[in-house]
Design a protein that fits this description.
7 strands, about 140 residues, alpha+beta
Length: about 140
């Protein structure tokens, strides 16, 4: 079954809400994944179980490989979320950004959301308007 725009929006909102919460609490976050089913059931994938402090790239790679080779059968769409430096070519209003690799059958995009931490004391995070970049599919290739 094809994913609806409503489910893609639901997954993106879930991903951005959690990323913003982590930025406000910690000023950073490890990459994480999430999926959504036809019924709208969201499932999170932390990528690691909290033993030690792995490198963010390693956590990203684990989730990427998991989604590429064996995401849950009920998943209509998947998101892989990372805290990134936005490439200069996009001329974003801020260098720091949340990147959501959002993918379903027939849809694959990096959604960049530039952000600024405007108050270090209270860790107030200001999100700028998102923009999308079309990419080749990695999770829903068949």
């Amino acid at each position: 079954m094809d994913v609806t725009q409503e489910r893609l929006n639901q997954l993106l909102t879930f991903s951005m809400d959690f990323a913003k919460e982590m930025l406000e609490e910690n000023g950073d976050f490890y990459p994480f994944g999430a999926t959504v089913s036809e019924e709208g059931k969201l499932a999170a994938d932390p990528g690691h179980e909290g033993d030690g402090e792995p490198e963010a790239q390693d956590v990203y790679r684990v989730i990427f490989e998991r989604f590429s080779t064996g995401r849950p059968a009920e998943a209509l769409a998947a998101a892989l979320v990372a805290n990134v430096t936005i490439p200069d070519e996009f001329e974003a209003p801020a260098k720091d950004g949340v990147r959501v690799h959002l993918e379903s059958k027939g849809y694959a995009r990096f959604i960049y959301v530039p952000y600024e931490i405007v108050s270090a004391d209270a860790r107030e995070v200001r999100l700028h308007d998102p923009f999308a970049v079309e990419i080749s599919p990695s999770f829903f290739t068949a």
